[in-house]
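Table S2 (text version). Query chain:
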Amino acid sequence: MNKITIIGGGNLGKSILSGLASSDLFEAEHITVVDKSTYNLKEVEEKLGVSTSQDITTSIQNVKWIILCVQPRQLDVVLHEIRDSVTSDQVLISTVTGTSIAEINDVVANKVVRVMPNTGAAKKLSMTCIAANDDVKEEVSIVKKMFDTIGETLVIEERLMQAATVLGASGIAFFLRFLRAMIQGGIQMGFHPHEAQIIAVQTAIGAATLVAENGAHPEREIDKVTTPRGCTIEGLNEMEHRGLSSSVIKGVMASYEKINTIK
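Corresponding structure-token output:
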């Protein structure tokens, strides 16, 4: 039963698969990917040597773990397709946004672990939040090991999964929009676009790494860069006068309000 099936071979499914296939958690022949796209299946089979199939029912037989890696609109169809085939000792791992454990259990009465990775998974730099009911603690520890293969993981309460989606998944887009603005500023100062991008990207990596590895609050690292009457504090204050922090917070909260209405 140390086998796993991933239902959905899109970008996220491929990223998760890449981490699992390069780890020592599963043998490649014990991993199966299910997708309707023959292109997706051919790609993962050739690159990673895993099993592939277009038949969901057959692919979930004799496996312990089933990762649901489909779009929200496809989930109900998939759950109804597998509900007569899953066994009580199988664990469902759902990456589907906005669908609670209780809603999944309304169709399939198995143990469920919810996970929310982000697109950093493609580079094994995902931030994955994990939630489950109290009776699934043993399974959660194994799921955490699975997703540790594609980045950092954090176990949270299920009530925070919507917020985790905004902060961790939508957050990729928020940081990239700020990065784009930095690049545009660099171009206006005289750099060629590719030069501005190299500088801005490496600076962003450095800033995030300082906070991650030093464990300090961002303001502590900001203080190391700002000098009295210097250009850095001048720029920071102008951004704040223009509403930088307020705009970011309002944007995050707007996304959070929206996600709570999506079904």
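Notes on Table S2: The chain has a mean pLDDT of 93. Residues 176 and 244 are 15 Å apart (CA to CA).
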